[in-house]
Amino acid sequence: VYSIEIIEELGKRAAEALKGLEYDNIELRIGDGYKGWSEAAPFDAILLTAAPPEIPAVLIEQLAVGGTMVVPVGGGPVQELQVIVKTPEGLERQYLGPYVVPPMRRNGDDRRGQERRP
Questions:
Q1: Are 72 and 79 in contact (CB under 8 A)?
Q2: Which of 38, 105, 111, 118 is the most exposed place for a label (fewest CB within 10 A)?
Q3: Are 5 and 102 in contact (CB under 8 A)?
Q4: pTM
């Protein structure tokens, strides 16, 4: 399992919690999730817990053929939850309805505490 957290304090707390639980199969990086983790790709599954305005192309590239991505997409107060499966022919999308999560941040983006609410 690979996880990326852009907020350094949250990443450090998560690393400490995982260490305390004695998990040894989780790699945690503090960084920009928009870039994914190319060194560990391709991934069988990608789960985003914050909403980008649109799905970063690099994350689609890092998804293995046959892999599944679950992503809330949208820049407004309510996003569209999507399940994407990458096939040899392209992408299959399933739309699961409205969803509300904080916006996905990028390096240099200081919107901490300004999550959008419906």
A1: yes
A2: 118
A3: no
A4: 0.84
Per-residue pLDDT tens digits for 37-48: 999 999 999 999
Lookup: tokens for 93: 């999308």
Of 72, 19, 20, give the one whose Cα is nearest residue 50: 72
Q: Give one DSSP letter per residue of 54-111, joined into a string.
A: S--HHHHHHEEEEEEEEEEE-SSSSEEEEEEEEETTEEEEEEEEEE--PBPP-TT---
Question: Tokens 């989780």 map to which residue?
Answer: 26
Query: Residue 4 and residue 97: Cα distance in Å, rounded?
Result: 25
Question: What is the distance in angstroms between the CA of the first residue and the CA of the last residue of the chain?
Answer: 32
Q: Would the pLDDT of 113 be above 90?
A: no
